[in-house]
Amino acid sequence: MTQKTPAELRADAEAALQEPGQRRIRLLAELDALDAELRPLIREARRMEVSIRRITELTAVAPNTVRAWARQAE
Predict the structure, then answer these.
(1) Integer distance in angstroms from the first to the last C-alpha of the chain?
(2) Which residues contact 16 (CB under 8 A, 6 or more apart)?
(3) Which of 28, 45, 56, 61 is 20 to 30 A from 9 via CA?
(4) Nearest-angstrom CA–CA distance, 6 and 58
(5) 63, 34 in Cβ contact below 8 A?
């Protein structure tokens, strides 16, 4: 049995990261697009006095993020 060199071990580790890493990059891009879609909707919901708690329940957006996005409209 032959042992792998450190370079081969690093290459194996990089190869293992490749597919899940690419998937994560795609999901983060999709999340950015969803945030851009949600931002004006959340601003309007706050303007209509929908509670922060209810917005977080409906969107899974963190309360501090809801506050920050709503403040941007002011």
Answers:
(1) 68
(2) none
(3) 28
(4) 49
(5) no
**Each residue's pLDDT expressed in tens, for the chain with a length of 74 residues:** 689 999 999 999 999 999 999 999 999 999 999 999 999 999 999 999 999 999 999 999 999 999 999 998 66
pTM equals: 0.77
State phi, psi for 60 to the nearest 5 degrees.
65, 20
How many other C-beta atoms are found inside a 10 Å radius of the C-beta of residue 53? Answer: 10
State pLDDT tens for residues 28-45: 999 999 999 999 999 999
Contacts with 46 (C-beta within 8 Å, 6 or more apart), sequence order: 52, 55, 66, 70, 73
The answer to whether 67 and 40 are in contact (CB under 8 A) is no
* Other CB atoms within 10 A of residue 48 CB: 7
